[in-house]
Predict the structure.
Amino acid sequence: MTSLPTPIDPPELFRSHAFAQGMIAPAGPTLYVGGQNGSDSTGALLEGLGAQTEQALRNVLAVLAEAGTGPEYVVKLTIYLAIGIDPGEAYAATAAVWGDRRTTVTVLAVTPARAGALVEIDAVAAIPDRY
């Protein structure tokens, strides 16, 4: 693989600085990152939505790095927020860790499977041709 995923933004749709309407992933190996919540290396959940969101993204980044890829190759993030959570704080925390990288994003309100979890994030990423 020699190229990065390409954002697709049809002119008749809203163009966000934070996310793309679609992504074309170069052909090659694909990594599916399972849902990561805001827990540290001991499994303890951090306190608060902002801290949990930042940690969940750091956990996603760790899985990406272990697979030999990085956030620039992510074609899709899915962010699951506990029901009743205002996504504004999660978006701010996402920007703090993720920066201005654009990818496709889906945000859903769900009942968390883990007590105390306020956010869970999964990802799909292309793996650069290194293997």
